[in-house]
Automatic annotation (TrEMBL), chains A, B:
One annotated Gene Ontology cellular component of this protein: plasma membrane
PROSITE patterns: CBS
MF (Gene Ontology): magnesium ion transmembrane transporter activity; metal ion binding
Domain CBS: 220-276
Family statement drawn from the similarity comment of this UniProt entry: Belongs to the SLC41A transporter family.
Listed Gene3D superfamilies: CBS-domain, MgtE N-terminal domain-like, SLC41 divalent cation transporters, integral membrane domain
Organism: Minwuia thermotolerans
Region (Disordered): 1-22
Protein name: Magnesium transporter MgtE
Keywords: CBS domain, Cell membrane, Magnesium, Membrane, Metal-binding, Transmembrane, Transmembrane helix, Transport
Gene: mgtE
């Protein structure tokens, strides 16, 4: 977002890109207007924003300004914005709005967005909101809430277009033109059998090109990919990407079509999935950007405690060799190098392995090949860095044996690091544990302990 | 992919999910058939696979089996599979196939996929292939190749449906039913002015519901979001997500519509964007899962060299205090704890900050608030871990002063870590550098040096 630094051409796009959106300037203007209590101006500016930008604006402001902004815009908040908000900010807003206005907003949202918003509410908030919405809207929402978080059932739209195979294109068109309860958006017409099971689909572009007399069953794509409502959204996302689906039916245990998953609902899932791996490997359990200081401190604390234990374990290993260190202080000076190089090399492998497991590019079918590859990479880089650090040490301390000791420890630790970097996530995955969550700790524990033990142990052997 | 360990219900989905796809069993069967040279069976199995699964199969096999598989299936490789392959595997396959057969495949692909495949080829390979395709196909491909990598121009489809605003729905339908050169897939009908500038669009579902006499201009959505072909795909992806676009026109400098970006082309961009941050923070420049051992070793080496320098810098700092360590070996035993805790705390902040910059959730508008938040988190966790490690040290070495020293160093380093974790990426971003690429090294350099210096320095002051 640094238009200033970017070259002219890019700048044009930036402007183009930001023009519709939330430019730093607009944010500034609104902030100033807000602080000067020129609420009319704020309302005007705010009304011009897309729901997603309205949401971002609330996230950019601090607690007080959010409150003030909400008062300023009154009822003018786009319901969609509620669904776009990061949870902590949404919680705050819901508090400020109160069940009545939240219910009004929920009633206007798509079912999947409405369920998404409701799910984040507290028990009693949820009850209050549901009580305030009309019967016909409440029923499907309650059904949606019945499905587990991160399931296809939560993500699916309950409105879709389904017709029998014997209908002609003309009948379909007339039905579409007259029907009242059609979804706001659909990409395909589904073809169902008498038991309401999806047997095929017709993409709308094909339907548009088909003459009225033609039977829908004759132009449909058969055997659609179907999902079960309990299915994990990450598995759904994987198939949507793998098979380039724009939408796919969701069926209940009897095979009856109950909803449809659309590609644009998958975008966020795909991003969050990849983002999750980064956060979890880095030891943050969630995107805490908009969390309170205390919540953030608490969740990060739990991960750091585990790392403290790891670090103390490493110190215990060093403790075994305090007598050696007393005699050869150079060992103390150099020992972090071996450990940290191992940690870095292992993390490289870990990142690749964790993502590959997530995208199903690393499976039982190629695990052995990948492990032996990492072993080789470890050996090669191990030798390379053994030479580098060995010579550097020799020059620095003019002690060839010390150089040899650190070189040997380096090779060993780099090899262990490479193997640990892939074997740990593979093992966790086989054990049914999400490799992203815990791999990193195990890895650094291994590379620290091996690194310190190998270097100090060899030092004790050859330098005393 | 561990159906065995998962509970029954999930298992059903797994089966369901994998059923269509590349189950471990299918991979095994094909591998065995291949090794037994039962090529007929291999062809049969392979022909039943979706292009994306055919690509995965090649990636799962090693070099020799790929060669053998290619011979086995002969010309039966789905052209789409070429576009789905990871680059290193595709390079190998292109070599094996030769320009003639690659040209045949390219001719069958969508333009954006064809350009994607061609772009990865070597200079002379590209020439050879282009020479082998028909004139009318070559022209648009050459145009596509003219756009920079990762630009909207590369991603866009050049075929789209555009009609003047005064056309009636009837005219549009008749045009669609008769026209020859329509795209295989489209979600919207674009409305253009006499200068061929997009002035609106009609989603196909709305078009289907519109009676023949109605003017297209009266039902269109006005002012479409448009992209420039030079625009970075990550910015395009950001807007597609932010504004829930299913497709959007691409226009040249005169505003003339030259192509269209579709949401399903964005899925991979969105995933790669988030994935990139993980890889770069972890020090892998690229997804090297399918790279050769040597290529992998080389690219990872360059990052590890930088980290070696960092580690040596830290050692130099320790070197300043060798006299102190000689007298109080406990310092050597404990010093890695302070440094590693700082590194871990900093990495937590770094991951959040880097992603937030990528998704434009962290901007000039809220930077100060986030920085002071990280400062507070650092102070709070710093105090918490100072108490923990201070007491642990006191118990372990029954030396209260040593406990006090490590506690003080811990607080200091955790605070510095939190600040560095957000200020470094913010600074790099402002400087126009991708914060994901280099933040991690700077961070560990800071946390190591501050960690060792603070702990050993305080030790020298209070323990001698």
């Amino acid at each position: 977002m640094n238009e200033r630094d970017s070259v002219a051409e890019e700048e044009d796009e930036e402007e183009g890109a930001e023009g519709r959106g939330l430019t730093p300037d607009i944010v500034r203007e609104i902030r100033v207007a807000l602080d000067d209590e020129r609420f009319g101006e704020v309302r005007e500016q705010f009304a011009g924003l897309h729901a997603a930008d309205q949401a971002d604006l609330f996230e950019l402001f601090d607690r007080d300004r959010r409150q003030k902004l909400l008062e300023a815009i009154g009822a003018r908040l786009d319901p969609e914005a509620l669904a776009e908000l990061e949870r902590p900010v949404r919680d705050a807003l819901v508090e400020m709005l109160g069940p009545k206005r939240v219910a009004e907003a929920v009633a206007e949202l798509n079912e999947d967005d409405a369920v998404y918003v409701l799910d984040a509410l507290s028990e009693e908030q949820q009850k209050a909101v549901l009580a305030a919405v009309a019967e016909d809207i409440r029923r499907p929402l309650e059904e949606g809430l019945a499905f587990g978080e991160d399931t296809a059932g939560r993500l699916m739209q309950r409105d879709f277009v389904a017709v029998p195979a014997y209908w002609s294109m003309g009948q379909v068109i007339d039905y579409l033109r007259s029907a009242e309860d059609l979804p706001d958006e659909f990409y395909s017409i589904y073809v169902i059998d008498p038991a309401f099971r999806p047997i095929g689909w017709v993409p709308l572009d094909r339907a548009m090109r088909t003459k009225r007399p033609i039977r829908i069953g004759d132009i449909m794509e058969a055997d659609p990919v179907v999902f079960r409502p309990e299915m994990d959204v990450e598995d759904v996302a994987y198939e949507v990407r793998q098979y380039d689906l724009t939408s796919a039916p969701v069926v209940d245990e009897s095979g009856r079509m109950i909803g449809v998953i659309m590609v644009d609902d998958i975008l966020d899932v795909v991003e969050e999935e990849a983002e999750e791996d980064l956060f979890q490997i880095s030891g943050v359990r969630e995107d805490d950007l908009n969390r309170s200081v205390f919540r953030t401190t608490r969740t990060r604390f739990s991960w750091l405690v585990i790392n403290l234990v790891t670090a103390i374990l490493a110190s215990v290993v060093i403790g075994f060799f305090d007598a050696t260190i007393e005699q050869v202080v150079a060992l103390a000076v150099l020992m972090p190098i071996v450990a940290s190089m191992g940690g870095n090399a292992g993390t490289q492998t870990l990142a690749i392995a964790v993502r590959a497991l997530g995208t199903k590019d690393l499976t039982a079918a190629n695990a052995m090949r990948q492990v032996s590859k990492e072993l080789l990479v470890g050996v090669l880089n191990g030798i390379a860095f053994a030479i580098l650090i060995g010579l550097a040490t020799y020059v620095w301390f003019s002690d060839p044996i010390l150089g040899g000791v650190i070189a040997a420890a380096m090779v060993l630790n780099m090899i262990i690091a490479g193997l640990a970097g892939i074997l740990i996530p593979l093992g966790l995955d086989k054990a049914g544990v999400d490799p992203a969550v815990s791999s990193a700790v195990f890895l650094t524990t291994v590379t620290d302990i091996v690194g310190f033990f190998a270097f100090l142990g060899l030092g004790a052997l050859f330098l005393l």
